[in-house]
Structures are given as C-alpha cells and as structure tokens.
Amino acid sequence: MPDPKPEALDFLLTRRSRPAKTLTTPAPSREELRPLLTAALRVPDHGKLEPWRLIVLEKPALTRLAALVPARAEALGIDESKREKAVAQFRDADLVVAVICAPKTSDKVPEIEQVQSAACVCLSLLNAALAAGWGANWLSGWASHDEAFCREGLGLRSGESIAGLIHIGTETTAAPERPRPDLDALTEWREA
Q1: C-alpha distance across the termini of the chain, in Å
Q2: What is the DSSP letter of 175?
Q3: Is 177's pLDDT higher than 90?
C-alpha cells in the first residue's frame, strides 16, 4: 500500500527555479548548506560508483572565476555579449555549487548512466535548496563546457566535466510563472 507524501508531491508540482540574477545575500552558511548537499547526493547511482563530486564556490572563488572568463572568451572567439554574460554569472553570484561529473571505469555501469546520475545530483540539490526556502537556479554556459576553463578555474581532472552550476541565495522577487509542458502531447500510454 502506498505511503503518500502529499506535501512533497505538492512541492514538486509547484516548484519554480529562481533566476540567478535575482538572488542575493544572505546565501546559506556552510552549516545550512550541509543538509542540502547531503540530500543532493541521495540519487540513483547504479553500482554505487559515486560518479560525481561537489565544489562549493564562495564569493572569493567566484570573483576569481569571473576574472578568468575574458581571456578564455578571447581565445575561443566568444562574442562580447556572451563573454559579459559569463563574467556576470560568476561575478554577481554569492554561492554556487559546481556539480562535477566524474565517471568511473566500470564494466557494469555505462558512462551515460553515470552522467545521468550527476544530472540527478543537480536536480536534487536545486530542489533541496528550494524546499529549504532558498532561491536556486541550475545554470551552465559556454565557460562551464570549456575544458581549459574547467581545468584552470576548478582543477577538473581528465574525464571530468561540469554537470551544472547551482546558484543558491535569497530571492529578491517572486519567480515568474511560465508555460508548462503539455503532458498529453508528450506521453504515450501502451497496453501491449
């Protein structure tokens, strides 16, 4: 017999990411962040490989990353508007958790399942932050996919990548509603 958790289901049916540019201080303290990180790591993990890790980026680290963006943008030929957006993503943030996808060699668990597990960490952290009353947003961007930026800025090792950058803080405005997917247009029901 099911053991319903209507509050949890209601949260999931109404959850809304908060635009990162609307987040401000205070951000969670380390003590406040620990249960959110613990919740984030309770994800499907075939083979118990833990193919992910977390890097908590506080203000000084974010300022340092923002300063690295212009040189990488120039090296890659990124236009100025995209460069400035990437600088602002780091410069204007107060707390970001980088979820690092770190696949392990396994004969049993394909890499795609490990990548999907890392994505689950991103969503779980996002939802944990929102459920705890914080504003939160899952971002990426060209810099987070640039190997040189990730290696120099975050110390990522060979084979690692950023699954997501989870911005967490205090929201300054209510999140705008947006159109939602049409369940019936996206769902097939098969009986045989």
Answers
A1: 26
A2: P
A3: no
Residues 6+ apart with CB under 8 A from 88: 21, 66
Q: How distant, in Å, are the alpha carbons of 106, 109, 117, 140 from that of 48? A: 11, 10, 10, 26
Question: What residue type is 150 in one-letter code?
Answer: C
Task: Give the separation between CA 185 and CA 10, rounded to whole angstroms.
Answer: 22
Residue 70: its H or E element:
helix 59-76
pLDDT in tens, 24-48: 999 999 999 999 999 999 999 999 9
**CA 158 – CA 108 distance, rounded (Å):** 21
Write phi, then psi, for 103 (nearest 5 degrees).
-60, 145
Least confident of 76-80, 177-181, 185-189: 177-181
Whether the upstream peptide bond of residue 179 has omega within 30° of 0, thus cis, is no
pTM (2 d.p.): 0.95
What six digits make up the tokens of 9? 């289901």
Q: What percent of the chain has pLDDT over 70?
A: 100
Handedness of CA 18, 144, 58, 85 (dihedral sign): negative
Tell me which residue of 62, 86, 78, 65 sits closest to 152, measured CA to CA.
65
Mean pLDDT of the chain: 97
